[in-house]
Amino acid sequence: MGNLVALIPLVIFLAVALIISFVARRRSAGEGGFVKEYFIGNRTLGGFVLAMTTIATYGSVSSFVGGPGQAWMVGWGWVYMAVVQVTALVLLYGIVGKKLALVARKLDAVTVIDIVRARYGSNALANISAIIVVLFFAATMVAQFVGGAKLFEAVTGYSYLVGLVLFGAAVILFTTIGGFRGVAFTDALCGIIMLVGIFVLAGGILVAGGGYENIMDTIKANHPAMLEPFSGGSMPAGLYFTQWLLVGILTFVLPQSMVRCMGFKDTKALHGAMITGTVIIGLMMIGVTSLGVLSAGVLTGSLADYGASVDNIIPQAIAQTLPAWLAGVAIIGPIAASISTVSSLLIASSSAIIKDVYLHSCEQRGKQPSERGIARGSQLVTLVVGVIVFALAVVPPDVIWKINMFAFGGLETAFFWVMVCGLFWRRAGKLGALLSMAGGTVAYCACMAVGFKAFGLHQIVIGIVVAGALMVVGSLIEKRSAVEQKAVDAVFFPE
Q1: DSSP 8-state secondary structure symbol assigned to residue 397
Q2: What is the pLDDT confidence band of residue 469, given thresholds at 50, 70 and 90?
Q3: Is the pLDDT at 4 greater than 80, yes or no?
Q4: Segments in 86-209 forming alpha helices (H)
Q5: Contact 412/436 with Cβ under 8 angstroms?
Q6: Burial, 455: exposed, middle or buried (Cβ in 10 Å; 0-12, 13-18, 19+)?
Q7: Which of 326, 352, 396, 385 shows the shortest CA–CA distance to 145?
Q8: H-type helices in 255-331, by residue range?
Q9: Does residue 307 register a pLDDT over 60?
Q10: Model confidence band, residue 346 (pLDDT cutoffs 50, 70, 90)
Q11: Do residues 227 and 76 touch, judged by C-beta distance below 8 A?
Q12: 393-404: per-residue pLDDT in tens?
């Protein structure tokens, strides 16, 4: 039998998120046309909302469940690895943010793929980009649904399927209704709730463990290697290096993050988001991962005692250290992380299908769908993609953080050189971009499938190196006319 007291806070949160999404959509109706409003919020996000929607999208359920679960097993080394995530927003807003926004406004671009198509003049590249976005986003969304539903089951006592239906239906509805602006405002709410959940759980763990010193003494007595930077060999230098690439340095090219750079109001908002967001993401990511380590002072059994999966550690910590009503508050944080990530990826997947494939195809054929038809089609696609992902999550896969990291690596491999070279290297060309995106992604996925690693490093290294080499070789051998180069320079490299 489920615990109704633990369920009530979550139901209230979901109801508030739905209301915010509905109000945001109603207030923005008619502003700037449906496509621009639904997929990019008509470029009106302020600094705080911009920061919180980016953080909430970046901080998925694996950041609150799988990552801390690994920290419970590995120790402080996993926290030191997580520190690199503090750089995420500085790199995003500082490297690509301003230029991406300027280019997007010149082109009146609504999606990252709009930028890719305009920079390289290739419909094939744009279509490959859309396929990659939808496939990897789908994998990530499945992981978010699974993580949120497992957490719901462990804390409330209601079944996995009940949790999946409850917040799965809510997130699909408010994304379908609210569009980009609705997602951004609900993301801001989710970000605040994530912080609240971290503080609530921290209090529960410290009280249950008899205080910080007592917890650390327990960890030292049971698992002294957890206190070492390399965790007795569990955190080798190579793992640090590849994880810093995977969850830190390369994350600024994730399409779901870059599109936020196209939606802010002005430079003041961008700078404010960079400062505010860096402080909050540091507090959030370092804090929640540290809680994973501290939970080892409370959950002192073996992994087998907790279902043989690190994904069960934080749900168990919540259930065992907090009274029912506070547990209900604490689970909102990780579930909010799941919801915010799914909603952002869902709207981005919809934009890839409608804006980047369908509407561009209509434009090439000289057809102009009605505004009402575009609106209905966009919302229908959002709904259908959400339902498909929901259906895939009904039978849950194991180890959600690995699924999330696989998707991160695939998107980073596909877009890193295409975007960085496209924005900052005049010589980057269509052939190089096509080879880089297709060849790098295939190399990454193939190595992941067979388990091949170079020097014991994560396959992201192979993907990035192959993609970079193909970008350089393809661009240098391609011949481009002066007219084509002049058109690119006018938008991307003005004097």
Answers
A1: P
A2: very high
A3: no
A4: 88-91, 98-107, 112-120, 123-156, 160-208
A5: no
A6: exposed
A7: 396
A8: 255-258, 267-294, 313-321, 324-330
A9: yes
A10: confident
A11: yes
A12: 887 665 566 777
Residue 379 structure tokens: 């919302």
Angle between helices 4-28 and 123-156 (to 10 degrees): 150
pLDDT for the residue numbered 445: 93
Tokens of 349: 């997947």
AA letter at 309: S
> Given the structure tokens 């014991």, which residue do they identify?
456
SS3 state of residue 45 = strand
- pLDDT above 90 (res 432): yes
Q: What's the rounded Cα separation, in Å, for the pair 355 and 113?
A: 9
Phi, psi (deg, nearest 5) at residue 264: -85, 160
For 248-268, write each residue's pLDDT tens digit.
888 888 888 888 888 777 788
Compute the CA torsion angle 73, 239, 241, 334 (nearest 10 deg). -40
Question: To 5 degrees, how large is the angle CA 423–CA 425–CA 429?
Answer: 95
Q: What is the pLDDT of residue 35?
A: 60
As a dihedral over the C-alpha atoms of residue 309, residue 150, residue 187, residue 89, rounded to 10 degrees, the angle is 10
Contact 187, 21 (CB under 8 A): no
Q: What angle do CA 319, 306, 320 make, to 5 degrees?
A: 20
Residues 421 and 415: their CA atoms lie apart, in Å, by 10
Using CA of residue 459, residue 454, residue 476, residue 442, what is the dihedral sign?
A: negative
In this structure, what DSSP letter does residue 396 have?
P
Place of tokens 């999404």: 21
Q: What is the CATH number of domain 1-412?
A: 1.20.1730.10
Cα–Cα dist 5/335, whole Å:
17
Give every CB contact of residue 218 below 8 A, 6+ residues apart in sequence: 209, 296, 297, 300
Q: What is the pLDDT of residue 129?
A: 92
Helix, coil or strand: residue 264: strand
Which of 32 and 271 is assigned the larger pLDDT? Answer: 271
Q: Nearest-CA neighbor of 290 among 35, 23, 64, 15?
A: 64
Q: Tell me the CA end-to-end span of the chain in Å, nearest whole number.
A: 68
150 or 255: which carries more pLDDT confidence? 255
Q: What ranges do the domains of the chain cover?
A: 1-412
Tokens of 358: 């369908």
Mean pLDDT lowest among 34-43, 198-207, 287-296: 34-43
- Which residues are 264's β-sheet partners? 45
Count other Cβ atoms within 10 Å, centred on residue 180. Answer: 32
**Chain length of the chain:** 495
Burial class (CB in 10 A: 0-12, 13-18, 19+), 322: buried
In DSSP terms, 457 is beta-bridged to 454
Q: Which residue is listed with tokens 């994880």?
A: 243
Cβ atoms of 245 and 460 closer than 8 Å: yes
DSSP states of 315-328: HHHHHHHS-HHHHH
